[in-house]
Design goal:
single chain, alpha/beta, Rossmann fold, four-stranded antiparallel beta sheet, 11 helices, globular
Length: about 270
Amino acid sequence: MANPEATSTDKPILETRKLSVDFGGLHALSALDIQVQRNEIVSVIGPNGAGKTTLFNAISATVEVSKGDILFEGKSLLNLEPNAITSRGIARTFQTVRLFTHMTVLENVMVSQHCHTKQNAFGALLYTKAFRTEEAEIRQRAEEVLSFFGTRLVGYRMDQPAFSLSYANRRRLEIARAMATQPKLILLDEPVAGMNPVESAELTTMIGRLRDEWDFTIVVIEHDMSVVREVSDRVVVLDHGEKIAEGNYDHVSNNPEVVEAYLGKSMTKK
């Protein structure tokens, strides 16, 4: 699934330079160099403890970077707060679904857009025309995002509380919340975890549509190799916080160091 618009001479939308994250004496990431081109889908794989989620946490400013730098559209993300990262155009999902469970589906997507709102509490209190206009725009965008998921999250489901959704639909709703922040880059942390084969296949197709129809750049952490194989333009393999391989799926799946570190011979048989 190579992207014809991405070439080695393009300026990356996301880049880590000698990125290191230490927790006491533990080196979670060590001098990691990764580049992601605009409109690429890049999968990050590796064994448990390889540093995959730490990488996402560093990009989204939920852990402190020890050394190195993270550049987004050529500008450093260091010393920014998580809400500022979102405002810059990076959204993410988590291994454990994080929703406002007692809010409706629609409200969950509307509230995720707060990073772009201009009206303050004063406007809300007086219910000014500007506030009403912005609220209508937020609702319209939320409905547009939810429509991407077809019947899964629209119609009567929009008014249901999030806790009433199936696990798969909660996953979809979390992705919808990320989409609504108007990102350029989405970080998906194990998006098909806990899903059955039918649900996984549907979400795999959806990841490709997020890039093709919505123009998102996507970085995916995933253990399901069938998903990695189907969606990835490139695969980056981490082990003990270091990059040990990078390339297309066939290249990394046949790399002896990758097989030894994590995947075993079963990967090459998929």
